[in-house]
From TrEMBL, chain A:
This is Adenosylcobinamide kinase. It comes from Vreelandella zhaodongensis. GO terms for molecular function: kinase activity; nucleotidyltransferase activity. It catalyses: adenosylcob(III)inamide phosphate + GTP + H(+) = adenosylcob(III)inamide-GDP + diphosphate; adenosylcob(III)inamide + ATP = adenosylcob(III)inamide phosphate + ADP + H(+); adenosylcob(III)inamide + GTP = adenosylcob(III)inamide phosphate + GDP + H(+). Its EC number is 2.7.1.156, 2.7.7.62. Pfam families: CobU. Pathway: Cofactor biosynthesis; adenosylcobalamin biosynthesis; adenosylcobalamin from cob(II)yrinate a,c-diamide: step 5/7; Cofactor biosynthesis; adenosylcobalamin biosynthesis; adenosylcobalamin from cob(II)yrinate a,c-diamide: step 6/7. Belongs to the CobU/CobP family. The keyword DNA repair does not apply.
UniProtKB/TrEMBL annotation, chain B:
It holds the Pfam family CobU. This is Bifunctional adenosylcobalamin biosynthesis protein. InterPro entries: CobU/CobP, P-loop_NTPase. The lineage of its organism: Bacteria, Pseudomonadati, Pseudomonadota, Gammaproteobacteria, Oceanospirillales. Transmembrane segments: none annotated. It comes from Vreelandella zhaodongensis (Halomonas zhaodongensis).
Length: 142, 177
C-alpha cells in the first residue's frame, strides 16, 4: 500500500496519475466502507482510493465514537490490503494533510481535523511507502 | 536562476531568501520587490521589521501588482527578491485598488512574464510565499478561490524553479535542486 498525502490543491492526483497511469480509481462516497473497494479490484491493476476527506466530513457528523471509527478504518485497511495481496494489486490511497493550522473553534471542525490526522497515521502505519506532495513536488517520507 | 522559498508564518523564509540573494549578488546591489500594501498599523510594523533587516546594498521597488514593471528595472545579471507572492496573489484576485482585479489566467501570465524576463536577462530571482494549504480550509467561496489560485501559482513555480526550498523554524529543506 502507498499513501500520497498533501494539502489542498497540492497536486496529489497529478502525482498519482503520473506514477500509476493504468490505475483504476475509486472514490469513497459517504455511506460506503473502505473495504467495499475490494469488489472493483482487477488482478495486477493498481487501485487508487480517493475522496477520503469528503467521506470523513460526512462520517464525523454521525453519532459514532472516534475510537470506533478509527478501529473500523484500520480493520478495513487490513481487509483491503489482504485482498490486494491476493490479486497482486498495488493499493494507492490519497489523503489530505490539514492539521497545520489553528485549532478550529467549531466542534465539528475539530473532530474532522482530528479524525483526518488519526486516519492518516493509521494509513501511513500500514503503508509500505508514504509520499508527501507539496506544490506538485513529491518527497518520500516513508 | 529561479529560487522558490516557502514556509509557514514566521518560519524565517524571508531571512533564508535574503541570504540567497546576498550570496548571489556578491558586492553588487540587491533588489527587493515589496508586494505589501500598508493598510494598517500592524502591516506598517511588519514592513518596518523587514526594512530594518535590509540595509546598505538593497534597493527597494514597491509593486503591489505590477511585478513585471519592477523586474524590468533590475539590471541584467543582478539578484532580486520578490517578497511575497501570497500578498501579491490576494491583490491580483481581490484588487489592491478598486477595479484592479485580474483573472487567475492573467495573474499566472504576469508571473510567467516575470520569470521569462529574469531568465532571459540572467537574473537571480528568489520568490517568497506562504504555505497555507495544509490546514482545514474555510469553506467560503472566496477563500477557496484564493487557495486554488495560490496553489496554481505554487505548483507552476515549483515546476519552473531551479531550486525549491521549504523553511521550517529558520532551517531550509531542499525539495528541488
Amino acid at each position: 500500500m502507498q499513501l500520497f498525502i498533501g494539502g489542498a490543491c497540492a497536486g496529489k492526483r497529478d502525482a498519482v496519475k503520473a506514477r500509476f497511469p493504468s490505475a483504476v480509481w475509486w472514490r469513497l462516497s459517504p455511506g460506503q466502507r473502505l473495504h467495499e473497494a475490494t469488489h472493483i479490484m482487477q488482478p495486477s491493476v493498481p487501485l487508487v482510493l480517493h475522496g477520503v476527506f469528503e467521506w470523513l466530513a460526512a462520517v464525523q457528523s454521525l453519532d459514532i465514537s472516534s475510537d470506533v471509527l478509527r478501529a473500523q478504518w484500520r480493520g478495513d485497511l487490513e481487509s483491503l490490503e489482504s485482498a490486494a495481496q491476493t490479486h497482486e494489486v498495488t493499493l494507492v490511497i490519497i489523503m489530505n494533510e490539514l492539521g497545520r493550522g489553528i485549532v478550529p473553534m467549531a466542534r465539528d471542525q475539530r473532530r474532522l481535523r482530528d479524525l483526518s490526522g488519526w486516519f492518516s497515521q493509521d494509513t501511513a502505519s500500514q503503508s509500505e511507502q508514504v509520499w508527501h506532495v507539496r506544490h506538485g513536488l513529491v518527497q518520500a517520507v516513508k | 536562476m529561479i529560487v522558490f522559498v516557502s514556509g509557514g508564518a514566521r518560519s524565517g523564509k524571508s531571512q533564508v531568501a535574503e541570504q540567497r540573494v546576498l550570496s548571489a549578488a556578491g558586492d553588487a546591489n540587491c533588489y527587493y520587490i515589496a508586494t505589501a500594501s500598508v493598510y494598517d498599523v500592524e502591516m506598517a510594523d511588519r514592513v518596518s521589521r523587514h526594512q530594518a533587516r535590509r540595509e546598505g546594498q538593497w534597493v527597494t521597488l514597491e509593486a503591489p501588482l505590477a511585478i513585471d514593471q519592477a523586474i524590468a528595472q533590475v539590471p541584467d545579471h543582478h539578484a532580486v527578491l520578490l517578497d511575497c507572492l501570497t500578498l501579491w496573489a490576494g491583490q491580483v484576485l481581490f484588487g489592491a485598488e478598486p477595479n484592479e482585479e485580474f483573472s487567475d489566467e492573467q495573474g499566472l501570465a504576469l508571473l510567467a512574464h516575470c520569470l521569462r524576463d529574469a531568465q532571459a536577462r540572467g537574473l537571480t530571482l528568489v520568490i517568497v510565499s506562504n504555505d497555507l494549504n495544509e490546514e482545514l480550509i474555510p469553506n467560503q467561496p472566496a477563500t477557496w478561490r484564493y487557495v486554488e489560485f495560490i496553489q496554481c501559482l505554487h505548483r507552476w513555480l515549483a515546476a519552473e524553479a531551479d531550486s525549491v526550498l521549504e523553511v521550517i523554524a529558520g532551517c531550509a529543506m531542499e525539495w528541488k535542486r
